[in-house]
Amino acid sequence: MIARYKFRNVLFLYYSAVFVLFTIINLSYMYKREKDYRILTLNDELEKTTKIVDNFIRINSIPANGNYHLIDSLVRLLPQENLRITIVNPSGNVIFDSSVPDWTKMENHKERPEIAESEYSDFSTSVRKSGTTGEAYYYFSKYYGSYYIRAAVVYDIKVVNFLKAKKFFFLVISISFIVIWLVLLFITNKFSESVTRLKDFALKIGNNEPFDFNQKFPRNELGIIGEEILEIYNNLLKTKNDLVNEREKLFSHLNALNEGIAFFSKNKEKILSNNHFIHYMNMISGELSVSGANFFRIEDFREVNEFIDKQLQTEISSNQLPKTEYKVCKSGKYFKVQCVIFHDKNFEVILSDITELEQNRLVKQQMTSNIAHELKTPVSSVKGYLETLRSDPAMPADKQKYFIEKALSQSDRLTNLINDITVINRIEESGSSYTAEKVNISDVITDVTNNFKSAIEAKRINVITENIDNVVVTGNRSLILSVFQNLLENAVNYAGDKTTIRIVRYNEDKTFNHFLFSDDGIGIAEEHLPRVFERFYRIDSGRSRKSGGTGLGLAIVKNAVLLHKGEISVRNRVGGGTEFLFSLPK
């Protein structure tokens, strides 16, 4: 029987607890309100007293003649018992006190709590023992511009009782509580009876137990619920499981994508988003946010926000959903922002990192332009020389030889340019697919210096190596050879005569050997240093073409070093010349 009515007991206990809490709060509030009312009444009475005193002082021009003792006659007329009036000037000196005959000897009252606080408040009160009379007072102080008027009553049992709240209403509340408690008992008993029977019905149906349909059952909505509850529950459970599975699939799919995707309601409330969306949004905005809702206040997305606001005000009737997209460049990275508005005015925002695609496009565009420009000169020269030879068959043999050698020189330059372009393309396209092997740096430097032996001797260049013997790196030999060959070729062509070239292994760690390649020649102007590794960039284009340079040598050096996971930098050497610092893997 106890278990059967457990719901009723719990329900009644909850109702009772809530009502008790409400009653306690209500009693506390009423008690405090009653007490505050009595304090307010006393304060109003004392404030009226101070106003009467102030009017008396002003009417009798007491501050001018100093006859403050006249206030004694006023105090005797006031109805309050044990009333004490004190006048204090702004400096804190007592200029009148109705309870002290010789107030001139009273100590300064500037620091009395009620005086100090009333300077900045409408009034101030305090209950304390007087330092002058030794009696406890209820003080009320008010500042009237030229002086403080303090009214006080002796804090005796009469005042204490006056300030106490009357407790008669406790009896009224207690009686009301008992009545309402009985009503709650009756209501919960009737309600629990219907719920208990419905519970028995639902349990038996759920356990496939026989149920006596002739049993008296409440004739209300609970009876209808009893008939449908199991079917509804089963349908909801199946639907819920299906939705959870589909939601998990959708989450897995969104997180597997490289794009940042977020779905929003027509009220711009986030429905769903993946991690990439928050990451890309923070990269574009430069902020650190964890909420996709911040998307709408970021300036970089103003264009898509204006599109959304416009489309939300427009009826979407066609099969073609409204869509917009644009590119954003931030800190050297490129992003594509896309937005699609659906028929129900919900919308989807997609953020894609297209940095690599955009950079490849720009590089290819720039390289195509540079290649066309670089090819144009040697091709035009060769064509000009050949046309000259064809137009003048009777040209002397020495001039014919001169033009043929010039055409051959330009064709060699064209060949070198094509070879360098091929090398760069192979580096970019093949990536790390190059076969790695052990490469002896000393052998590489020997091969490179032999290739330029005649030029080195002609310009009386001195090549010095330090700490190179038995140094071995791991990588593609032809690319490592091209690193040293292009650096040496640059130094031979542009450093000047009688220079010294130093190739040093200056450091090593667990992973890399670190090299220094330097010359003491004319050096490179500071404004050119950041761009020397760019393709086709020449410090002196006329001089470079005259020496046969293609403008790709240092670009090949940089790409070859980066392909081997190393680093490279350039700086001007102290004392003149140029220094290249780079690393290659052990």
Folded structure, characterized:
- The chain is α+β, with helices and mostly antiparallel strands.
- 51% of the residues lie in helices and 18% in strands.
- The protein has 16 helices and 17 strands.
- It has helices at 6-59, 62-65, 71-77, 113-118, 157-163, 168-206, 221-256, 275-285, 302-312, 355-391, 397-430, 441-451, 453-458, 477-494, 541-546, 553-563, and strands at 83-88, 94-97, 124-129, 136-143, 148-154, 260-264, 270-273, 323-330, 333-341, 347-353, 437-440, 462-466, 472-475, 500-508, 512-519, 568-572, 578-585.
- The strands form four sheets. Strands 2-1-5-4-3 form a five-stranded antiparallel sheet.
- β4 and β5 (148-154) form a beta hairpin.
- α11 (397-430) runs parallel beside α16 and α14 (477-494) packs antiparallel against α16.
- The chain is elongated, with a radius of gyration of 49 Å.
